[in-house]
Design a protein that fits this description.
2 domains, globular, Aspartate Aminotransferase, domain 1, 7-stranded mixed sheet, 15 helices, alpha/beta, 4-stranded antiparallel sheet, Aspartate Aminotransferase, domain 2, 408 residues
């Protein structure tokens, strides 16, 4: 079985060669990842050679537009969606807000939407505000002990009034991988739209959206080794039904309908570097002569296997301690490597102590206030979150465990 060449992977990220970061182990990747050199190189090239208004006939402008189109084309191929169904925005939070305004115009008083209390607030708050327009908001609640979502609870909430169900692929606290395809099938069978927040899953491998069956899928490029952009898929038929949120003369452009402001040309163009990186990792390990979507799936498997190998000893260590509360499952194959723990001390305070040992981690509520309350954890007390991705190596996990032992 092919294993991830971690030295090759780390050579693709300038942060690992940066003198100011030497001796530091990065465990707050759920908040934002390091950026690959492919993205940085594209961004630098755009700002130095293409920083003009794109899509005009002169050369610099023509190439600028082509690079923006390239990003949309290559990312849609990896995600296995039609190119015109992918759009960019300044952040996933902003994209979700714009979508919620479109649904506000389309739905009628008495219609219902379902949200969860497992979400980051960005994929919950904008939808909950629809109640101000007479739309019923139903909450799919987590189990108070485990933080998990039960499909039988969703079935009890679904009826012919429900028009939309929005939920996370992975919670940024619980870390469990929700059965997205099963949930989407249930939602669509009930005649509703399935909206998936993929922000906490995508850093562990860009998904095959077609296979998941989602009507809407959102994630953040700055958490997937790219620039600060929100990336959004909206099914073409749904996009036509939703009221245009962009300039009126852009109403017939699927990827402009949900972008009220002008796009960030340079960052969109640089997003193609995310696919350059996926391709480089794949081609270093496997035969290069296959379609991009297959390369992405093979690369995802490499990443997932590596992360699972590193996650196992961390979970084993936490499981053996009686002074920490592991949030979510301790089964490696059912979660991603975002691990939150409840402690006697405040999460932020412990993160500060870990920093003295060269561990970059985070503490707090992580915009999952509703979830923490449901788990019986005061948001002001918070949790310690330890999140890593495939560029983390075994030595860093060992360093983390030693630092935890000394700190806890």
């Amino acid at each position: 079985m092919t294993k991830l060449d971690i030295d090759f992977v780390r050579s693709q990220f300038p942060a690992f060669q940066e003198p100011t970061l030497q001796g530091q182990a990065f465990f707050e990747n759920a908040g934002g990842s390091y950026t690959s050199k492919f993205v940085i190189d594209r961004l630098h090239r755009y700002y130095t050679q293409r920083k003009v208004q794109p899509y005009a006939p002169y050369e610099a402008s023509r190439v600028a537009g082509e690079e923006m189109d390239e990003a949309r084309t290559r990312l849609s191929a990896v995600l296995n969606i039609p190119v015109n169904d992918l759009s960019f925005g300044p952040s996933t939070t902003q994209n979700t807000y714009v979508l919620a305004q479109a649904f506000r115009q389309m739905l009628n008083a008495g219609d219902a939407v379902i949200v969860t209390n497992q979400d980051h607030e960005a994929n919950s708050g904008p939808w909950r505000r629809l109640a101000e327009s007479g739309i019923e908001v139903r909450e799919w609640q987590v189990d108070k002990d485990t933080g998990f979502l039960d499909l039988s609870d969703l079935a009890n909430l679904l009826d012919n009034k429900v028009k939309l169900v929005t939920f996370p692929h992975v919670s940024n606290i619980v870390g469990q991988i929700n059965p997205v395809a099963d949930i989407c099938a249930m939602v669509k069978a009930a005649g509703a739209v399935a909206c998936v927040d993929g922000v906490s899953f995508a850093p562990h491998g860009l998904p095959d959206i077609k296979a998941l069956g989602a009507d809407i899928y959102l994630f953040s490029a700055y958490k997937t080794y790219g620039p600060h952009q929100g990336i959004m898929y909206v099914d073409a038929d749904l996009a036509k039904r939703l009221p245009n949120q962009g300039h009126y003369f852009n109403a017939n452009s699927p990827y402009k309908r949900f972008t009220p402001a002008g796009p960030d040309h340079a960052q969109i163009a640089a997003s193609a570097g995310m696919v350059d990186y996926i391709e480089a990792i794949h081609d270093h390990h496997f035969d290069a002569n296959i379609p991009l979507v297959q390369k992405a799936r093979a690369t995802l498997k490499l990443q997932a296997d590596h992360e699972a190998e590193l996650l196992a000893p961390l979970l084993e260590y936490l499981r053996a301690r009686n002074d920490v509360r592991l949030i979510g499952t301790d089964k490696v194959q059912e979660r991603v490597s975002t691990v939150a723990v409840g402690l006697l001390r405040q999460g932020e305070e412990v993160a500060l102590d870990l920093a003295k040992h060269g561990i970059m981690a985070g503490g707090g509520d992580f915009y999952a206030v509703r979830l923490l309350k449901s788990l019986g954890i005061k948001p002001t007390h918070g949790v310690l979150r330890l999140s890593f991705v495939h560029y983390t190596n075994a030595q860093e996990v060992e360093k983390l465990i030693i630092a935890l032992d000394q700190t806890l």
